[in-house]
Design a protein that fits this description.
7-stranded parallel beta sheet; alpha/beta
């Protein structure tokens, strides 16, 4: 009912999961009228397989794709194809609208922030039109990253990834291997909360995300990407509190 610009759908590595992603994406577009954007990773497929997947999506009416390298298999240190190569391949198949990933706090595998920024520039030059960032909790980190990207001549709409926190302990573990800093103030907010008190946790998570959006909006950010993690009701509540309501609502 909120009519988002699109809904992204994550992508599994094996063929069964790929087929399931394809089915979900088609159902979203057919049953809701909302643009669906499947994730597509290149680390686990050949160029020909990727081209066929892209053609199948196009024939199904899918025009937006989130292009990602994907996690390297255990024991593998490099791959023949990266996200920038995937973007170029997709553009060669059809004129997709392509979103890519960006990392305000640096990709865990990148040797430094400048190296990471050059990777983002390559993705833009290959044909991407939008970058969705990894989640973050320090808005200054995002704003500095946005400024650095602009100074580097990266012509992309950089969309902040917002993660409403529903489980703090899970967040800490996830942040540990995604190179995301969890600030002390966030720890203090969740400290001492009963593990079974999900209602209070949800209220905290919604409030934190809402404040992030408010601060970023004041800095000129117009679009936001919510990581719902299959908990859309929390993101829906956040949008409602921010004044984004169903179009037929009074």
């Amino acid at each position: 009912p909120l009519k988002p610009a699109y809904m992204s759908v994550t992508y599994g590595a094996n063929s069964g999961e790929r087929d399931r992603t394809h089915d979900v994406v088609k159902r979203i577009q057919q049953q809701t009228g909302v643009t669906a954007a499947p994730h597509l990773t290149c680390v686990d497929a050949s160029a020909e397989e990727l081209k066929q997947i892209a053609r199948d999506y196009w024939d199904s009416g899918i025009r937006r794709i989130v292009a990602l390298r994907g996690d390297l298999p255990k024991g593998v240190e490099k791959t023949d194809m990266y996200a920038s190569d995937l973007v170029a391949l997709l553009k060669d198949v059809h004129d997709f609208d392509i979103s890519v990933a960006a990392y305000p706090e640096k990709h865990p595998e990148a040797p430094n922030a400048q190296f990471d920024l050059l990777n983002l520039k390559r993705k833009a030059e290959a044909g991407a039109s939008e970058a969705i960032t990894q989640f973050f909790f320090d808005t200054g980190v995002f704003l500095r990253f946005r400024d650095r990207a602009a100074a580097a001549g990266i012509d992309l709409d950089i969309v902040p990834g917002i993660l409403p926190v529903t489980n703090y302990q899970t967040l800490v573990k996830f942040a540990g291997f995604t190179n995301v800093h969890v600030p002390g103030w966030l720890h203090k907010l969740y400290e001492g909360l009963d593990a079974d008190d999900q209602t209070t946790r949800n209220l905290l998570g919604a409030n934190i995300a809402m404040e992030q959006v408010k601060v970023l909006a004041k800095e000129g950010v117009k679009h936001f990407h919510f990581y719902t993690l299959n908990r859309s009701e929390l993101s829906y509540a956040i949008c409602h509190m921010l004044g984004v309501k169903p179009q037929n609502a009074g």
